[in-house]
């Protein structure tokens, strides 16, 4: 959802920051270009292996700066493909996932290994957020499909999660259980009533 040209320009031009975007089907031409380039990938540029939670997780990355002037996306410094292979130590089941992405950081500024580390941290955050969205909001069962509805409702849910995370010490699900169907408590929680915001002295 965040892999947008306008947002990329905002980060680089206004915030003097870098972006690290995963490219998905909502950018079909960009995704097809990356898939085609990395189709015949061979030796990875970096590899990491982690052991924990009853599984072995290997992540491999291939990076290139050859597409910088070709891709129709602002400030591309490198494009990459990441393969994630997970082996369940108990069952021996192997699962694989291949994702593509772009970053505004050039190859002289950040290595393939660093991009892989950044992607892993981003994946952990996204995975946690998706779990909360599904667990607390039943997002996977949501029937909102048309127009800007899916994007808008997703933003509202993420906003609500963000507010709860920075204001509550009880966790998202526990806080939501306490506030569900209690409009007055919600307004108090958000400090939107006279009793909750206190008296302002001039």
What does this structure look like?
The mean pLDDT is 85. The chain has 202 residues and is of the alpha+beta class. It has helices at residues 5-14, 28-37, 112-137, 149-167, 172-179, 183-189, 194-197, and strands at 20-23, 46-52, 55-64, 78-88, 94-103. A hairpin with a 5-residue loop joins β4 (78-88) and β5 (94-103). A 5-stranded antiparallel sheet has the order 1-5-4-3-2, with helices on both faces. The protein contains 7 helices and 5 strands. It folds into 2 domains: 5-141, CAC2371-like domains (S-adenosyl-L-methionine-dependent methyltransferases); 146-197, no CATH class.
Q: What is the count of structural domains?
A: 2
The low-pLDDT segments are none
**What is the C-level CATH assignment of the largest domain?**
Mainly Beta
What profile does the largest beta sheet have? 5 strands, antiparallel
What is the helix/strand order? HEHEEEEHHHHH
Mean pLDDT: 85
Query: Helix proportion of residues, in percent?
Result: 40-55%
The neighbouring-strand order within the major sheet is 1-5-4-3-2
Any idea what the radius of gyration is? 21 Å
- The CATH architecture of the largest domain can be given as Single Sheet
**In CATH, what is the homologous superfamily of the largest domain?**
CAC2371-like domains
Which percent band covers the strand fraction?
Answer: 15-25%
- Shape by Cα distribution: globular
| CATH fold-type name of the largest domain | S-adenosyl-L-methionine-dependent methyltransferases
């Amino acid at each position: 959802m965040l892999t947008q040209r306008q947002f990329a320009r905002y980060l680089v031009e206004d915030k003097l920051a870098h972006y690290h975007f995963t490219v998905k089907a909502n950018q079909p031409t960009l995704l097809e270009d990356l898939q085609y380039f990395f189709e015949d990938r061979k030796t990875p540029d970096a590899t990491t292996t982690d052991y924990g939670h009853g599984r072995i997780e290997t992540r491999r990355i291939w990076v290139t700066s050859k597409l910088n002037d070709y891709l129709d996306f602002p400030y591309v410094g490198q494009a990459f493909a990441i393969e994630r292979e997970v082996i369940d130590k108990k069952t021996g089941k192997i699962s694989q996932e291949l994702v593509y992405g772009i970053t505004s950081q050039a190859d002289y500024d950040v290595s393939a290994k660093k991009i892989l580390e950044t992607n892993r941290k981003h994946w952990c955050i996204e995975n946690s957020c998706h779990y909360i969205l599904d667990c607390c909001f039943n997002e996977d069962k949501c029937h909102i499909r048309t127009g800007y509805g899916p994007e808008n409702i997703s933003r509202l849910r993420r906003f609500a999660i963000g507010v709860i995370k920075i204001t509550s010490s009880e966790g998202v699900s526990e806080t939501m259980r306490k506030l569900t169907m209690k409009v007055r408590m919600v307004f108090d929680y958000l400090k939107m009533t006279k009793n909750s915001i206190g008296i302002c002295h001039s």
